[in-house]
Amino acid sequence: MPYDLVIGDRAYSSWSLRGWLLFDAFGIPYKLHKARLYTDELPTLLKQFHPARTAPTIRTPDGVVMPESLAIAEELASRHPDAGIWPTDPKPRAIARVLAAEMHAGFTALRSHCPMNLRLSYTDCNPPQAVLDDLKRLETIWDWAWDQTGSPHWLCGEYSAADVFFAPVASRIATYNLPVSPRAMQYVQAQLAHPSFRQWRAMGLVDGADQDFYRRDYPTRSWPGPTPLPARAVDGTASENSACPYSGKPVTHVLELRGRRFGFCNAFCRDKTVADAEAWPKFMALL
To answer: In this structure, is residue 99 part of a structural domain?
Structure first.
């Protein structure tokens, strides 16, 4: 049996992103359960899992319910020691755990002023000094991790839970155009280009209506991550393929890209592909 994983809105729920990356980025099978934030959907769904009613929450194949992302990371690492959730060598593993723990408990000013919103990017958000202080702290601990581990790319060698925990922070820097060092910005760009993150954002762009809580009046700019291919949704069911590349079911919805038409089994499959076609290897195999 797979794990059960409960998440909130993909565009906005930073903790849900962490929980999902712990499964998707490390190849651990799961069954997804999703509900909207700021509605009765999420607490109603979570009644089946845990009284804390927070996302992410998982249920293990043997029935253990866990609602905390850091605990989820440790438990998955124990149950799947070959998945690479934490670095193998003791020193980078210890540093990765320090980083994840600080992210789990800190950076409250950054979280408050810049809630995660993957649907747009602003030119400026007038960050107060407390947010600037959080950004300096980020640069300090990231530089420390790179210097201690000698990692040229991710924080502690190969992509690990430490990077999972900072993925929403990278998205905040991208969304609010926050000032960080060139070295930190290279790390942000790596996060935005990570295959699992790109898929999560593509789904978040088309996953339900905007949440008013996250609306800000700052001027906007283009998303600073990878530029999507110019796909668009079109009417009809005529397409090059007769079956959805994801499910294998018959085509009901179609997109157009480079003058070619490709079909999918539902609007969500089509629209997540329109949002970022290159995020989906099964579609790119068709293209």
So the answer is: yes
